Amino acid sequence: MPKAALTSYIQPAYRAFYKGAETLKEAMEAHCHAPNVRSLSEAKEAFKSLVLKFSSIEILHFGPAVENYRLERLNYWPDRKGRGIKRLRKMLKTRDRAALVDGALLKKSVAIQGLPALEYILFGRGAEALNYTSGESMDAKTEYRCMLGTAITRNIAAIAGDLIKPWEEGGAAQMLFTAPGPKNERYRTRLEVISEIYKSITAGLTFVHDLKVLQLLGETALSAKPKRAAFWRSGMAMQVIKANIAAIDDLALKSGFKSLLPNSSLDLNAHAGRIIQQINTALDRLPADPALVVHSPEHRKTFKGLLKQISHINAGYSRHFAIAADLPLGFNAADGD
């Protein structure tokens, strides 16, 4: 199971993210060097593509991702007090050119190093300034915004490289994950490795339920918080929920967990598959704007229904995967045990 999870899911997911980060970096550099309508569109599409690739590694809370605050640096979210945007706006106002030097962002707040900060550059207030062509005169404000966006893409690409290298053949993370034992500083037994995969599946579903759906709804439509949605500025909020759930299901399949499930009157795989299809259908029908989702009675009802469906899948997986993997009774993914 650990080897299958590594070669079929973990390595491909990190490789795809690294490749996407490099593509985004090149697209942003190209637009700032020779801007045109097409180059800006390509940078925005590369950003959206990378956000979806990030959704596949976002659920992996172990290994290099949790070292040196890499996940937080890539995606400082939720940022309920808006610290990242406040810092970013200040930088755009003061045009701190020292921040543009390679490696300089590493010394600044994690809130301005990753995808949410770049989303603001490309889609947030004042982003229309980037919609210029090389034949036009670029003012200092626009030039700085573009250069800061490029610096952030370079930072993201550097972090992506730091993530994939340890998972490649002979890398530290790969060796720890595939060779548990008494001398392994991270995993003493194969069961400890399996529990990491289990936690990624069940805690991942809880993460989507609590933070990407529940926290947006509020008690009523009046108290809803649509701007707490991940990547709402770029219109990706519903897509990242779908991508997260698809990633979790993919990990469950490719790691081998699904093959361990016993035959019973309830075919859990097929049952979960039907629910996931229902979730996907619902998300595809919802508007991209979270404000329209949580404030419209009809859309709000559909969105709220996702909570029950996600919980239902999680309850089934939590119980049956734990039994299938022979995890200790009372094991709780939230405990980190």
- Look at the structure and give the CATH class of the largest domain: Mainly Alpha
Class per helix and strand makeup: mainly alpha
CATH topology of the largest domain: A middle domain of Talin 1
The mean pLDDT is 91
**Main β-sheet: number of strands, strand sense, barrel status?**
none
Q: Which residues sit in consecutive blocks of at least 5 with pLDDT less than 50? A: none
Distance between the termini: 19 Å
Provide a descriptive summary of the structure in words.
The two termini are 19 Å apart. With 337 residues, the chain is an all-alpha fold. Helix 1 (2-33) packs antiparallel against helix 6 (140-164), helix 5 packs antiparallel against helix 6 (140-164) and helix 8 (190-217) packs antiparallel against helix 13 (297-324). The chain has helices at 2-33, 37-57, 70-74, 83-94, 115-123, 140-164, 172-178, 190-217, 237-254, 257-260, 268-285, 290-295, 297-324. It has 13 helices and no strands. The model has no long low-confidence stretch (mean pLDDT 91). The protein folds into two domains: 2-178, A middle domain of Talin 1 (Up-down Bundle); 190-327 and 331-335.
